Amino acid sequence: MDRLHRPANPAGQTARLAAARLVAALLVAMLLVAVLLAAVGPASAQRAEKVVVAHVPLINFATLYVALERGYFLEQGIEIDLQRVASGTEALVFLAQDRLDVGAIGLAASVFNAFNRKLDLRIAATTSSWGQRHGTRILTRLDLFDAGEIRSVRDLRGRRVAVAGGAGSAGHYLFLIGARRGSIGPRDFDLVNLPNPDHGPALRAGRVDASLTGSPFASAALAQFMARPLLENFAPGTSTTVFAYSGGFMRSRPEVATRFLMALIRAARAMQGPKYLDPENVAAYKKYTGVRDEVLQNEPPLLYYPDMRLVTGTIVDMEKTFREAGLADYNEPIALEAMVDRRFQQEAVKRLGP
Known about the structure:
By secondary structure, the chain is α/β, with parallel strands linked by helices. It folds into 2 domains: 45-131 and 240-352, D-Maltodextrin-Binding Protein, domain 2, CATH 3.40.190; 137-232, D-Maltodextrin-Binding Protein, domain 2 (3-Layer(aba) Sandwich). The chain contains 15 helices and 10 strands. It has helices at 10-45, 62-69, 72-75, 88-96, 109-116, 142-146, 170-179, 199-205, 217-223, 247-252, 254-269, 279-289, 293-298, 312-324, 343-352; strands at residues 49-55, 78-84, 102-106, 121-126, 137-141, 160-163, 190-193, 210-213, 227-232, 241-246. A 5-stranded mixed β-sheet has the order 2-1-3-10-4, sandwiched between helices. A 5-stranded mixed β-sheet has the order 7-6-8-5-9, sandwiched between helices. α7 links the parallel β6 (160-163) and β7. α2 (62-69) crosses α11, α2 (62-69) packs across α12 and α11 (254-269) crosses α15 (343-352). The protein is globular.
């Protein structure tokens, strides 16, 4: 007897087919979500963490600006609240009070005084360093040079020297390390606090005899025959600007503190070699600092280390120089580990790779 077959149920088959298609669509959607989350990273999948950063708009802090414009902070789940300050000293007070998370600041005697008073902050990374060639020079008056009265830094004893920021500033330190070549100490000259743009006119008018002049103002003074160079391209590797963290930021949000440096390191790596003048990078420099195209093209660039390493040699030497010059309000040396915290930079490099 032939086996009987039930007639097909078209409605049931259609329902099962629709259900299968729905399950397949859901699986595809879940796969797409997983791929997107993997692409943007776990930090971006969460709500962005606000980090308050104070800065003085300088090309020294270019990694900060490039990271902002290229979206590297957002990729790390960080929203930057950028606050402009007049000086690093102003930022120090806010850092110590936990009103700031990060300060992009220049080192000065006041910073070391703060460490001595055990204010709650640490240096987390170096921002940039001088290369073998850089635009900062020690200049002298045209007439004194041509007359043979001043031909080297050793001839500056008893002379009036212009430095931006005055006593205890980063410029003061940079002049002192240059003056060491002529055995000139901190008490062997008269310091005049004068902004960099005013150095050339002051030299030409005879109001000062020499200056420690930064880029691009030193080049401008030479091009306009306002001065002669006494010392150029000295002390390569020197770094007087840093990223400092507040104590509260380090203790309460160490993961965010690490990711902040990861974004900066990505920016530094996007600025190496010819990439320094990549149009997207140049746009960031100009937006935040106002630097001109001709300066970027003609002046030697700073070094931005691709691992944002701490240049501890400069930190130690600055502390010692200011203390021995009587520019600090203490007498005993400060231990390096009381000024820096390496954990975040080291962890950031570990995660990103060398």
